[in-house]
Amino acid sequence: MAIPPSVCVFCGSRAGISPTYAQAARATGALIAHRGWRLVYGAGDIGIMGEVARSAQQAGASVFGVIPTHLMALEVGRLDLGTLVVTETMHERKKVMFTNSDAIVVLPGGAGTLDEFFEVLTWRQIGLHTKPVFLLDIDGFWQPLLALVDHVIAQGFAAPSLRDFFVSVDTIDALETQLSAALE
Ligand code: AMP
């Protein structure tokens, strides 16, 4: 059977202070399922990461999870996923997630999510891939990040093209429009 278009979701292993974040995560999971796409994610069952996966799975999506051995307990690694890859290291996890995806969506999250976003952005900047990257800017969550990227460009530490390597969307509908244009 052919592998459906695959969406890698990077997001928080915590829930954040507003219920909006979990709602957005559930809506993203449901969107992936309803479109017939596959979810690729960090295989944990905590924070909004868990929300994305539960909602995608409940709505019938195939789910591909990747988790390093040492986080199996900490992030409550899910054993009931369509595919579960257990890696030795965090680097390997990111690589397996990335290589098995056609597009990347970044939901609100913490340092891990930022690391994941900047890694795919860096790879894009040096021409290692052309996969589309979307920031879901729910409730303006990513505005400080967008301001930082603009600042880095304005101060001459990145080319203006850095801003073209990802698209910020502020609603689930806009995310769906962008993802379907990229994947279908
Ligand atoms: P966080 O946004 O900090 O909640 O982390 C989100 C996800 O990123 C979790 O699955 C973390 O295990 C993962 N993560 C945290 N730090 C790193 C890192 N340095 N490299 C790759 N993934 C990370």
Please outline what is shown here:
The protein is α/β, with parallel strands linked by helices and 184 residues long. It has 6 helices and 7 strands. Adenosine monophosphate (AMP) binds next to α3 and α4.
Give a written overview of the molecule:
With 184 residues, this protein is α/β, with parallel strands linked by helices. It has one domain (6-179): Rossmann fold, CATH 3.40.50. Helices cover 42% and strands 17% of the residues. Helix 2 (47-58) links the parallel strand 2 and strand 3 (62-68). Helix 1 (19-34) runs parallel beside helix 2 (47-58).
List keywords for this structure.
single chain, 184 residues, alpha/beta, Rossmann fold, seven-stranded parallel β-sheet, 6 helices, 7 strands, globular, binds adenosine monophosphate
Strand order, largest beta sheet? 4-3-2-1-5-6-7
CATH topology: Rossmann fold
Biggest sheet record: 7 strands, parallel
Q: Total number of β-strand segments?
A: 7
Give me the CATH architecture, please. 3-Layer(aba) Sandwich
N/C terminus separation: 18 Å
The whole-angstrom Rg is 15 Å
Query: What is the average per-residue confidence, as pLDDT, rounded to a whole number?
Result: 97
Q: Kindly name the structural category.
A: alpha/beta
Q: How many helical stretches?
A: 6
Small molecules bound: adenosine monophosphate
Number of domains: 1
